[in-house]
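Catalogue entry: protein

Sequence with per-residue tokens
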Amino acid sequence: MKFLALSLLCLVAVACARHITLEDVIDLEKNSAYGYISRFGIPLAEKVRKAEEEAQRNPGRIIGGSHAVLGQFPYQVGLLTELPNGLSLASAVLVSPTRVLTAAHNLDDGVAFVTRINVVLGSITIFTGGTRVVSTDFILHENWTPSLIRNDVAMINLPSAVSISNILAPIALPSGNQLDEDFAGDIAIASGYGLTSDLGGIPANQQLSFVDLPVITNDECAAVYRSAIIQPSNVCTSGAGNKNICTGDSGGPLAVVRNNNPLLIGITSFGSGSCESSMPSGFARVTYFIDWINNHL
């Protein structure tokens, strides 16, 4: 894990979560999700696979960092999607014992369309460990638009219910008065798999990582990305302090704490061209899509 200003190892997830320096989510210079899977997802999957193999051969290389521990984010899901030219890596979130929510661009980027998904649950590594389920049953939002990265949500149906435990459990969805919150000013936590810096490869100790991110208003976000991209269907986080989300997080959860439990407020959708920039990141706003989500549970 690359350290920026501080080098203390945080032991408490919510209070001390810090920088996930992964790769780009979507190249916003092109303002499009087209070709995301082949440009980013497949190369990243191969890098992570090699890193995990190296960690098994040479465990002495593992060092400290902002890694998650098993059970810290029991709702976290990893995806290895199959395409003719290889595996692509992405993240997702468990929202019921039989349903996994992710970003639509992980499954259909306007060029490649995934037909088979390896779903990884209850694990801090994506190529080994945990509960592994194969699904070919998923639905994209009917208005998913790759050219504008709009309505970037999809639901994966698991073939049977997974067993709930302290390391594998669904996250709570907003309800009641929470549906009226915009969450601006909250400190949220994003989690996912991926690179540890803009430059260089993936270290042998690469695993699920997490970061705390301040939620900002959509007006602040639109000032950076323009209103054609930022819609009421988005929620954004600040990139202040060079803390951000990137490729390995794509489709993963953005959560806040309510009633001492994590609450899902966003699905990782897009970021700037550099994960170490101070640019905001964009997520699909869960409260906006809550009817669609509930209709597909």
